[in-house]
Amino acid sequence: MFDFELRKENKKSEARLGEITTDHGKIETPIFMPVGTQATVKAMSSRELKEIGSQIILGNTYHLYLRPGDELIAKAGGLHRFMNWDRPILTDSGGFQVFSLANLREIEEEGVYFQSHLDGSKHFISPEKSMQIQQNLGSDIVMAFDECPPYPAEKEYVENSLNRTLRWAERCKKEMESAEGQALFGIIQVGVYPELRQQSVEETTKLDFPGYSIGGLSVGEPKEKMYKMLEHTTPLMPKDKPRYLMGVGTPEDLIEGIYHGIDMFDCVMPTRIARHGQIFTHVG
Length: 284
Prior knowledge:
35% of the residues lie in helices and 23% in strands.
């Protein structure tokens, strides 16, 4: 069961209120998702997450695949039971982590060959494999396997990346046809080229996913470029589907993203800085 209800729109901006329904409960949007990289939000228990109002958390496919292993988690009853969390979970595809291993991976049409950052062991993840891992994890929202181009990158490279991501999206959707209780989100990619962003939106939305995420931002580009891409991209996206901006979590970025019509955010930053004795305040 997956549904998105758009409840209210702001007349002076793209900002909006909505509600997502999943098998593990409802999510009021806009929402920030704490990141539980390895089946735990570091330094926080499930009880503490509920006490601060967390409605959904994120798990990392790449890290969980390597350790403790998605098959072990499946035997334990899925990620919800494994980490004692009975509310919704979103899992990323592992794409960003794999592609961040610039010196340890090789991209091919069939997928990505890479070495583990833990022990150097060799692995392969394809769009189909990523979907199979996420099915084992049992998350409510599954992300398509994409290629995340670096910043900066030449336009020709980014265009090739866009086309590969679209082909991979079709393979992901086909692999998830028999999956129950999981919603697959498509990913709009391609950095800071407006015309390619528009092409990515048009081609990805043709596949009619239950929701869409914006990738390829917050990867080193100047803030003003990220905001400009949001201003350009979100008006092109379907109004009746959730919009998820990946990897963004500073207070000013959340507010800017909400202004431009984003419904969902995630980032490791809030818990990371907290573990090092810092907090966000209204003065910095």
